[in-house]
Specification:
The structure is a single chain. The strands form ten sheets. The protein has a 22-stranded antiparallel barrel. Strands 3-9-10-7-8 form a five-stranded mixed beta sheet. The protein has a single domain, classed as Maltoporin, Chain A (Beta Barrel). The two termini are 34 Å apart. By secondary structure, it is mainly beta. A hairpin with a 6-residue loop joins strand 28 (479-502) and strand 29 (509-533). Helix content is 6%, strand content 55%. The protein contains six helices and 47 strands.
């Protein structure tokens, strides 16, 4: 990590040096911006707007042309998190930021699921539904926010916008883009737990219609309350635009992120020692317990993305927009799984000892994508249309391999243990010797030496074509009809490595061979219909119906996999149909207080069908079904010129409505009750709420903070509810964050954030099978933010 750490510190040093120069010469900064309204000025705590290409404030709205109507006239629940919230909350990851949008949870890594961003929206695993500037963001990643202008969360089935997906919704990350006004924003922050972070956001006009925007980030630190878990990362966002503000424009963008960190799989569940010590099923170890090995474990994320956007406005009737992208990502890690070591022993003094198990992944992904839209407005008689017609093409290559970590010297397993789970490790077993630690007092500094070998690589290639039409039809001044339809063709082929066991003497994989997986192709069509009534120009009530399709290769929420077959009605290798999601939603939206404050409310009923389940002894069919019903409330904007609020509340009642039938091994088989039938879905808390607010007490002092609440949430796989009868869950929790910002000068602000101010100990999620993830403890961050 030394090269990355040096890069992080160089970036921070650059930011700090520039900060010092600006503080020493505030007059120069003021002169340079005398006649310019800067981005930084417009996104102070008293303003939650976003910035257009000319540097002017505009209302938060999705940036994609697929959204053919203003937010208040779009018949579905959409949350837009602006840049001001990113900065005020001191967010540094997508997971941090999305805590401001209730109803979204993040799943824990488990089994084939990667250690990466795994959001759940309306109870549906949505890791494949993350987009950047309207194009699907592929590959396992833990995403940064330094280069984001806003984040858009679309709730419910949105296949007419995004194509294939889980049906819960999608997340679009809108990148910072070049503007025609001059501004420089610099932030240098220090904090507890060795926190250091520096960012530079510089926009430089290059003539009347061209500009260059550069964003640079360097950061390092420890995770509060998890002292052994550290991170070191740096990133660059570069965007060059020409023809800005004219009918014909082009923007070339490059994005890079390198992140090195100690991966964290949290703490074990009671199943590790076969003794339920808490009602939740999370083992009662200290929350600071860390089971990994500093000498072995690591995680590296790398992202390189090149994007070219060209747009030409022919007239009000038609604008042509084309976006092309090439990206490479890498998700590479070895992590200790405290619940999956396969062996626990108990010494004579009652001490539990466990063998460290590992999860590993080497997962590079390359993507080539292109989206072309034609959008505009026209009238047929007295009926007005706002439309978008588009074509999406993409090709993704996803490679996967695992590591063998063969221990030659590690922490020994004490002799004379009474076996509780599994068999004692041998002196020279498949994974080497020993490598044990006390369950209730693990030591991440244990010495370890060994051999790490990457196994053979499996791969799959995905090709997708999508064609879509969206139209917002003004039937009258008060009545709007929103229609959308999209056809997709999705195909996957691959090669799977067939593995033997690692060598018992060198940890080298034995390869039994490679098996090609035939190309499978699915075609599906999805719809959206919405009716909007506008009591006033700034308000609406609506009803909508929408659908989505989830091909079987992504139904588990992981990155694309090859295959997509199963045994149906006794016939093996049957190509499965996509799972279908259908949602009905009613809602209301209003912009009040002279359009300063946006309010929203929605009620929805979502059903997902076609999961493969057992319906008769040895007979499987696609008849599984889940259901989620709920209510969502949202608020965003200014109550007064000095008082801002952003947040909401989500209620979800989820249920596995049709689970697999369960039969005994008797002859003839006897059906028994499936313990999962009727239980809530994984990662779907019944209640969640957040409210972040700021108030400008004086012309220079702003105070505020956030309150975040989530009720208990069961773990386990999609469609399950926490390890069957184990009923393992993450207990409910409430977190308080605090903010104070003081304008030292017109161009310099000191900002203090205290995250988890009460130092609440809580579990943020559990997979219900192996482990539970501990939330970060209290952390104080002091940043100097400069703008000129």
């Amino acid at each position: 990590m030394s090269d990355s750490r040096a890069a992080s510190l160089r970036a921070l040093l650059f930011a700090s040096s520039a900060a010092g120069m600006l503080v020493a010469a505030p007059a120069f900064a003021a002169d340079a911006a005398e006649d310019v309204i800067t981005t930084a000025d417009q996104q102070q705590p008293a303003n939650l707007g976003t910035i257009d290409v000319n540097g002017q404030v505009k209302k938060p709205a999705p940036v994609s042309p697929e959204f053919v109507a203003p937010l208040v006239d779009t018949p579905r629940a959409i949350t837009v998190i602006p840049q001001a919230i990113i900065e005020q909350t001191a967010a540094s990851s997508l997971q941090d930021l999305l805590s401001n949008s209730p109803g979204i949870t993040f799943g824990a890594g488990e089994g084939g699921q990667p250690l990466a961003d795994r959001p759940f929206i309306r109870g549906q695993s949505s890791g494949n539904n993350i987009f950047v500037d309207g194009l699907r963001d592929t590959g396992g990643q833990q995403r940064e926010v330094f280069n984001l202008e806003q984040v858009e969360v679309i709730k419910g089935p949105d296949a007419v916008y995004s194509g294939r997906g889980s049906g819960g919704g999608s997340i679009n990350l809108a990148s910072k883009s070049p503007k025609l006004n001059v501004f420089n924003n610099i932030s240098a922050g220090v904090g507890t737990d060795d926190y250091l972070r520096g960012t530079i956001d510089s926009n430089l006009p290059l003539g009347e219609t061209a500009a260059l925007r550069i964003n640079l980030m360097g950061a390092r630190g420890d995770v509060p309350g998890r002292d052994a878990v550290d991170y070191d990362k740096w990133g660059l966002g570069l965007s060059l635009g020409a023809g800005l503000g004219t009918p014909s424009s082009m923007v070339f963008s490059y994005y890079h992120l390198t992140s090195d960190q100690m991966p964290d799989y949290g703490i074990p569940l009671f199943t590790k020692i076969q003794n339920r010590t808490t009602d939740s099923g999370v083992l009662d170890v200290p929350y600071s317990s860390f089971y990994g090995l500093k000498a072995r474990d690591y995680m590296t994320n790398k992202v390189d993305t090149f994007t070219f956007k060209a747009e030409y406005r022919l007239s009000d009737f038609a604008t042509v927009r084309n976006v092309s992208r090439y990206s490479e990502t890498l998700n590479d890690y070895i992590v200790t799984n405290p619940g999956d070591g396969g062996y626990v022993g108990r010494a004579a003094d009652g001490t539990y000892w466990m063998k460290r198990g590992t999860k590993t992944r080497w997962n590079p992904v390359t993507t080539l994508a292109n989206v072309t839209d034609v959008y505009g407005q026209f009238a047929t008689g007295g009926i007005k249309h706002s439309y978008d017609v588009g074509v999406e093409l993409s090709r993704e290559r996803n490679r996967n391999a695992t590591y063998s970590a063969y221990t030659t010297s590690g922490a020994a397993c004490p002799t004379g243990l009474t076996t509780v789970v599994g068999s004692p490790p041998t002196a020279n077993g498949a994974s080497g010797v020993g490598d044990c630690t006390p369950v209730y007092n693990p030591n991440p500094d244990d010495a370890w030496t060994g051999v790490i070998n990457r196994g053979p690589t499996s791969s799959n290639t995905t090709e997708a074509v999508g064609v879509y039409v969206n139209d917002s039809i003004a039937l009258t001044e008060r009545l709007l009809l929103n229609l959308g339809v999209r056809w997709d063709q999705y195909s996957v082929k691959g090669v799977n490595a067939v593995l033997g066991s690692p060598s018992s003497t060198a940890g080298v994989w034995n390869v039994a061979g490679y098996v090609p997986v035939p190309k499978r192709t699915w075609e599906f069509t999805n719809y959206q219909v919405g009716l909007v009534y506008k009591p006033t120009q700034s308000s609406s009530v609506y009803a909508s119906w929408s659908t989505a399709s989830t091909p079987p290769t992504i139904s588990a929420g992981d990155q694309n996999a090859s295959g997509g077959t199963g045994t149906v009605d006794g016939v093996a290798n049957t190509v499965l149909d996509p799972e279908d999601t259908e949602s009905f939603e009613i809602g209301a939206k209003a912009n009040v207080f002279h359009d300063r404050l946006a309010l929203s409310a929605a009620a929805f009923h979502l059903t997902r069908k076609n999961a493969l389940i057992l319906v008769q002894p040895n007979i499987f069919r696609q008849e599984g079904e889940v259901e989620v019903k709920g209510v969502e409330l949202g608020v965003s904007g200014n109550i007064t010129p000095n008082w801002t609020v952003f947040g909401g509340y989500t209620y979800m009642d989820s249920e596995l409505t049709r689970a697999a039938r369960v039969f005994t091994a008797a002859t003839p088989p006897v059906e028994i009750v499936n313990p999962l039938q009727g239980l809530p879905l994984a990662n779907t808390p019944k209640n969640s709420a957040s409210l972040f607010t700021t108030y400008r007490l004086t012309p220079r002092l702003t105070v505020g903070g956030g309150v975040y609440y989530t009720s208990k949430s069961f773990g386990g796989n999609q469609g399950g509810a926490g390890g069957g009868n184990n009923r393992i869950y993450a207990p409910s929790w409430t977190r308080l964050d605090l903010l104070a910002a003081y304008d030292v000068t017109d161009r310099a602000t000191l900002q203090l954030n205290v995250k988890n101010a009460t130092d609440e100990d809580y579990i943020i999620r559990t997979n219900g099978v192996h482990h539970a993830d501990v939330a970060a403890g209290r952390q104080a961050i002091l940043a100097l933010n400069l703008r000129f």
